[in-house]
Amino acid sequence: MTPHLSAIGFHATDPPNLARFWAGLLNWELSGDGTVALPPDGKGYALRFTESQAPKTRQNQAHFDLTSATPEAQRDTVARALELGGRHIDIGQTPEEGHVVLADPDGNEFCVIEAGNTFLADTGVIGAVACDGTQAVGYFWSEALGWPLVWDQDEETAIQSPEGGTKITWGGPPVNEKPDVNRLYFELTLPPDVDGEAETARLVELGARRGPNGVFLDPDGNEFTLRKAAE
Q1: Is the peptide bond before 174 cis (omega within 30 degrees of 0)?
Q2: What phi and psi values does residue 193 have, to the nearest 5 degrees?
Q3: Do 188 and 223 touch, CB atoms closer than 8 A?
Q4: Where do the structural domains in the chain lie, given as residue ranges?
Q5: What topology does CATH give the domain 4-228?
Q6: How many CB atoms within 10 Å of residue 119?
Q7: What is the longest distance spanned by two Cα atoms in the chain?
Q8: 46-51 and 36-38 beta bridge pairing
Q9: pTM (2 decimals)?
Q10: 49 DSSP assignment
């Protein structure tokens, strides 16, 4: 059995504040310690915020694309993000583009996508985790998670759980240089009856590497964690 994407982690300068921002923006619940945003239906993945005082020096390798059912819903999401402490940013988008680019209170970029986007139809509030990455890393994550490819064209790839929900996408070349640790990372959880060493060996065979402090690196060098679920 393949591991489950249990959470997307954020290295944050103020974890409780950032957790409140994202829980408020997505209308998700907060964990008891206030550092994890939990989806209300219990499905999909959580957002976990861990403390790091490392400054943000570059655009993230991954960002969220939030969906909008209507133009009014897009405006409401943008307004709510600004009220919660987000801000508009310029990453080179043009006025003709329909999405709105924002940053959360810690500077993490995200987009509020316009209504009518067919690629993100029926995906949920987080329509996509849009990543900077190669075609090979898209293939890696498809095999690692057991999620089928739903897009594979011109070296751009996307995968989605068989149960639906958020898509994970990789934009293909050119891939930006990764000089330091990513602020966003994937947390994988294994069922308690799965052999952890065997699963580690499988991921390494697929192209993963062991990193420092128990962290793993995918073929593009992006960090992820792997742990077993409690019995």
Answers
A1: yes
A2: -90, 5
A3: no
A4: 4-228
A5: 2,3-Dihydroxybiphenyl 1,2-Dioxygenase; domain 1 (3.10.180)
A6: 14
A7: 52
A8: antiparallel
A9: 0.95
A10: E
